[in-house]
Design a protein that fits this description.
This protein is of the alpha/beta class. It has 11 helices and 7 strands. It has 3 domains: 184 residues, Toll/interleukin-1 receptor homology (TIR) domain (Rossmann fold, 3-Layer(aba) Sandwich), CATH 3.40.50.10140; 60 residues, no CATH class; 67 residues. Helix 1 links the parallel strand 1 and strand 2. The chain starts with 6 loop residues before the first strand and ends with a helix.
Length: 322
């Protein structure tokens, strides 16, 4: 499997057109973040369901584009949500779940009556699955209890809401808004306080080769995401293995955390500057189009005035003849 994506787009087939717009907007404006979109990210010859669920469990930000179809039309969207939720709950991935209320309002999604209907549908799927002659793989099984937990967790998170009755929230504009929210959330996640503990570095020789070793990333209890990680000790501290990216530390360097924080701040600053440049580029393009339109209008007026001048000249000649 390829490396984990920054963003995972979970959706129903009924919302495919909007999600395509969102995917295009993310790639155009925030190309430094990788995006998993099934239509684009699964190569020919790759298995669909295992790839989707694996990336749903390993992404940094799982985005659920909510609708009635998402919850009750077919199993895959809820399987994706459950995979992301379980990974987040177990501290094995997915630091954040983000709902996007496209064809489902938050108040409707939180309605106990609605949730009862959805649960009945899920339980019916479960019964049909149990009675089937072909048992589903464990990862593809309907789990109503887990699904409900995942939905409750998701709905407890604030997310963008589509308002079709407001002109500025037409589908394309909403896609731009959602893309900005996603980028801001990833920027925020990158600022999460982490400290690093080098392993296998008891002497200066191993310090010289630290870039080739694995190191431990430790998120302390004051991290806003520590509740999503599995406790490793009574202090509320947890450790996760990840690969060192090649930044070589000199012997005796005790300021790694500060350097890492400054790098993160610089990356965030670059991202914001990039977005500002893109906004300015769009504004310049809009002004250029406006100038072109005015030039065409002026040309049309000049032609009209010229035509009127010819008509007046013709009338003057007719008067003289008479």
């Amino acid at each position: 499997m390829s490396k984990p994506y920054d963003i995972f787009l979970s959706h129903s087939g009924a919302q495919k057109d909007f999600v395509e717009q969102l995917f295009t907007e993310l790639k155009r404006q925030y190309g430094h973040y990788s995006v998993f979109f099934d239509k684009d990210s699964i190569k020919h010859g790759e298995q669909i369901s295992p790839n989707i669920l694996e990336h749903a469990k390993t992404c940094k930000l799982a985005v659920a584009v909510l609708s009635e179809e998402y919850l009750t039309r077919r199993k895959p969207p809820m399987l994706e949500l459950a995979a992301s939720y379980t990974a987040s709950k177990n501290g094995k991935g997915v630091p954040c779940l983000l709902p996007v209320f496209l064809d489902l309002k938050p108040e409707h999604a939180k309605s106990s009556e609605k949730q009862k209907i959805w649960k009945i549908t899920w339980e019916e799927w479960k019964r049909n699955e149990t009675m089937s002659d072909r048992p589903e793989p464990r990862t593809n099984r309907v789990e109503p209890t887990v699904w409900r937990e995942a939905l409750v967790k998701l709905l407890d998170t604030r997310g963008p809401v589509y308002k079709p009755d407001e002109n500025e929230y037409k589908s394309a504009f909403f896609a731009k808004k959602v893309a900005g929210v996603i980028a801001d959330k990833l920027d925020e996640l990158s600022k999460t306080k982490v400290s690093y503990k080098a392993t296998n570095c008891s002497d200066s020789a191993s310090m010289e080769h630290l870039s080739k070793d694995s190191i431990r990333m430790t998120a302390y209890a004051d991290s806003p995401h520590v509740d999503q990680m599995e406790d490793a000790s009574t202090t509320g501290e947890t450790q996760m293995e990840f690969e060192w990216t090649g930044l070589k530390l000199s012997e005796g360097d005790e300021n790694v955390e500060e350097r890492e924080r400054k790098i993160s701040e610089r990356e965030i600053s670059i991202n914001k500057r990039q977005r500002l440049v893109e906004v300015r580029e769009r504004n310049v393009g809009e002004r250029e189009r406006n100038v072109g339109e005015r030039e065409r209008n002026v040309g049309e007026r000049e032609r009209n005035v010229g035509g009127r001048e010819r008509d007046v000249g013709e009338r003057e000649r007719n008067v003289k003849t008479r």
